[in-house]
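Entry for the shared binder. Reason: the reviewer on the internal report wants the predicted structure included alongside the sequence.
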Amino acid sequence: MKKILLVSIKQSSFQEYLNPLKQSEYTIFSSDPSDHSIESAIQNKPHLVIIDYSENMNPIEIRKSIQLRLKKYFMVFYLITNGHNPLNIREVYTHFDNHFEKPFDPYVLAAKIQISFKYITLIHHMAYINNKNHLKLIDLEEKTRSLEHHNNNLSMAQQSRENKLSNTPPENLSNDLEVAGQIQQEIVPTHVPNLKNFKMSYKYQLYGKIGGDFFNFYEISDKKFAILLADVSGHSIASAFVTTMIKTAVANYPNFLSSPKKIMYIINTQLNKKIQHNFVTAIYMVIDLENYNITYSTAGHPPILYYHKQQDIVSEYTTDNTILGISESTHYEEKSFTLNKGDRIMIYTDGLYEVLDNNTNEIIEIQGLKEVFSDTREDDIDSLPNSIINKIKNRSQNKSFEDDVLVIALEAQ
């Protein structure tokens, strides 16, 4: 059962906003803002907490109090305000996953809650798999230590330990990774949308069963369309977990999809202090489908490559923004440029060009990729990502990639 906690002084008056929810799917329980009431209510371990702000209430302290009591339990927090918001925009982004200003459409709230629970389910499943594999590894280590204890030859014991770790992976680990990979595939687009005045294509190629590359498309309006591309370091369950966090962060703030710098700020604040062994680069761009303008922001990500058809050259567009999740106080700039008909742009992850060139024995890097992008200028846009991937692969020493590869290409018509 999906559990929702409502923290509100006027609980009965808020009930109308929750009426569109199917009562058979959700358990909704309430609390006033007092410590005693909250302490009692959170024994139910809610998945989603709605804080209905009223005067003399401190929503941040309430959120911290609940999170502290259930610090090992993943929850989503919504803030509801009514004409007076005690928090600035930065505080809202930092402490809450979604914000509604009364009055609002109850069906919009219901839709947002459904989206949140979809990703809560994914995150819980990822956490379950991660914990399950961790326990298997602990058990394996205990068996290895026992083997070392009974072996008189230290070097033989060490060799046995290494062999056991490398040749006897935890049972069903492969199946768990496969499930995680299937979940990850479900949160990325499965088709290319039809765009006014533009054609788009993409190719997404995982290095293993799960990866750290993520992308999504956003149809903001009939005049604007956005693309998010992110690259999480590693190919572990933790990397896949971070990609779900990114998608959830953006999904919770649809009102800011037209602003690349705000989307970057939202993702950064959501990831800050929550990722320890991963780093994230990203690019988010908004396309004006009528005037061919591209507004974008990047976070430590490789530059946009822009093929100018008239001049027959390839140029780079980027920012000085740093990677995501490092500092809460980071602010992100955005820039823009305008395409002409026939021009192309390409965004991608670094796995595409971080391969050894068979001729020079050096990394192909951005310059080599620009050459390949130029060489494929006559290729149809629908086949362009595949063409570029194949040319890079044939140019590499191993004829393969050692990382996830993601290429998204766009042409102005």
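Summary line for the report: Residues 146-158, 160-168 have pLDDT under 50 and may be disordered.
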